[in-house]
Amino acid sequence: MARETRFALLTLGTAVLAFAVVVLGGYVRLSNAGLGCPDWPGCYGHLKVPESLAGTSGFERPLETGKAWKEMVHRYFAGALGLTIAGLGFIAWRRRQEDGQAVALPLMLVALVIFQALLGMWTVTWLLKPLVVTAHLLGGMATLGLLVWLALRQGHLLRPVAEPGPWRTWALLALGVAVLQVLLGGWTSANYAALACPDFPTCQGQWWPRTDFGQAFTLWHGLGINYEGGILGNPARMTIHLTHRLGAVLTLLTVGGLVLALLYRARSARVRKVAGVAGMALLVQAGLGIANVVFGLPLSVAVAHNAGAAILLLSLVALNHVLRPKTRPVPEPAAARSSVTGLESA
Fold this sequence. Notes:
This protein is an all-alpha fold. It folds into two domains: 1-157; 159-346, no CATH class. It is 66% helix and 0% strand. It is built from ten helices and no strands. It has helices at residues 3-30, 65-94, 104-125, 130-154, 167-190, 213-216, 234-265, 269-294, 299-322, 334-345. The radius of gyration is 24 Å and the shape is flat. The relative contact order is 0.12. Residues 328-346 have low confidence and may be disordered.
């Protein structure tokens, strides 16, 4: 097996670990365990959850063992992911002189995972500040997406094809819209606005209730505030929820339109298959979003919705990959090379 392919498989395995970290992070957030350990990187001053707070001082928050273990398991997985990505960066740097070895993207991932660690620390020390929580979610999704992109571009796991048409631009636009929707979803969750509209398709019995965009999207409320449970009023939370619904409609139109167009007009069977996977992920994600509202945000459905967002993003990353053939230098014809050589020798 070629070194390039082995590196791609190692990167893909790291992406699986990153997916687990994203899902665990969603589970911690949605089960209200984000402050299960009020310090970082340990838990009440220990590397594992203590059995009691006897002998510890300086912690006002009471120990809730179940929530604390959820938080620490997520940290263990995140730590393992950070070490694995650091290993990828080290391997890439050692092989930087080899033809075909990606270097810039692995090193970018190392920088990103370090920043993710800082966001994880600030999530706790800044008491679940929505801006930091949302940025932490987006950073996790970015780490996952870049790992999959690196694996696909580095190896031969899903070969790109030359597909004529406007699909590359449309696919990139669809990915951007999906990222924006993930951002809105994170903001909805971080501000505890998922149940601000408990009915569907209306919101508290109205198609457009009273809103408050000024408060809904104020990014900075200051430090020293405990954001657990949310601090916004009902109109602001409804505004966030409604904006997320509008984003879902935009995502359905953009991604769904691309999928249908590719299924009917793409020449390559490989492109149609990847588009079909993206279409299925989109439909499942839309159904999970509606189920969250109709059934009152059950934890299993909410976590699945978080995982579904990651799967939808990855399917769009794969679609962008398969529509973007690698550009390689065109080899110089043999006749031209021999004539140049003859001139140089003369």
